[in-house]
């Protein structure tokens, strides 16, 4: 059975045209065969009618002349005028006896039809059927004029006519299919543009638009496509703007929380350490057994201060604009190595100069790295994390410099989210990373290895990031 799935539309329509044409040919051929058989039947019936009337005239002449010696029946005159190849003419008396019969010879210039066609034609049309007309004299039937045709003759004629039709059909059908396929290929040529437009939309190019087409149906599809692209671009723009606001709110909340922790919790810990030191001095003079408890309180306060300092560093990192992106990332990695104490192991490689980057660009890249390292260390259980930051110079043919950020780890990926990406549970996670990269005009890809490991790639054009920074400052 023909498999229609994934087949070419032009081929599919051309095959349907071929099938319909074949059916039409079969119907037309059947119609011609029926009309030919009807014509033969009518001709035989007319011959039988002429023969019957001739015999009636002969019988009337005999009776009028009272000449019993006259020959009856006499079909010579009729046979001489109507006889054709394969035609038979006879007179049959009331007793069923054939008194006279004439038959024309069969054609010799017509090829014999195949046995299968002959058997089918005879089953459908019964070409040897007789045409009978009564011969009446003085109101009484004295016999029948019978005409019939040799079945081989109409069968051979039908095969000859069908062969000519078949030859015409075998020539016309390929030409028709070729013309239909060419016409369809020309008419459906705009579908390539529609497919290219859809692929551009799928790749994230929301500026893709379709031109007007000659066909009204395709032109309507193009109008709907352009409207959909415009609405999608507007919706994504609104979503990006909302996400940017959420990111700004998150950063502001982090700064506010960092100030609150530093001002309130930090001062309280400093006061506890001071009270512990004072209590130790008093205990050293009055109650030596309390020295150990005072030292324990001081150590606990010191550990809490270190923990608070790490939390403040993550909530509000050092000013990237002042230190620079490279120095800030090196400090971030050093902090993680210091806290992790070798497990996991963080490594960083930086190539190129990042001193002229805008502050917002450096801050967004820093947050992306911070989010990725946090996920690798706390959620993926990685034992080794590799961070590479590279400033790639423009190609020789011209273009812009690009910032390439790559983070690889050997941890276990998280549970996939509905979009197929592993879910990063820290902050806004992967969504926040994507929006930060989108705000810089870059691209982000995240892949998980089998059975473990993950790779994060971020590519940001420097020119696009500068424009994004200008728009952010204007907003």
UniProtKB/TrEMBL annotation:
Catalysed reactions, as listed in the record: ATP + protein L-histidine = ADP + protein N-phospho-L-histidine
Keywords of the record: Kinase, Membrane, Phosphoprotein, Transferase, Transmembrane, Transmembrane helix, Two-component regulatory system
PROSITE patterns listed in its UniProt record: HAMP, HIS_KIN
A GO-annotated cellular component: membrane
Keyword Phosphoprotein: yes
Gene3D superfamilies named in the record: 1.20.5.1930, 6.10.340.10, Histidine kinase-like ATPase, C-terminal domain (3.30.565.10)
GO molecular function: phosphorelay sensor kinase activity; protein dimerization activity
Main subcellular location: membrane
Residue ranges constituting the HAMP domain according to the UniProt record: 185-237
Histidine kinase domain segment(s): 365-464
SMART domains: HAMP, HATPase_c
Localization in the cell: Membrane
UniProt cross-references to Pfam families, sorted A to Z: HAMP, HATPase_c, HisKA_3
EC number of this enzyme: 2.7.13.3
UniProt-annotated stretches for the region Disordered: 394-427
Transmembrane region(s): 13-34, 165-184
Name this protein carries in UniProt: histidine kinase
Originating organism: Bradyrhizobium pachyrhizi
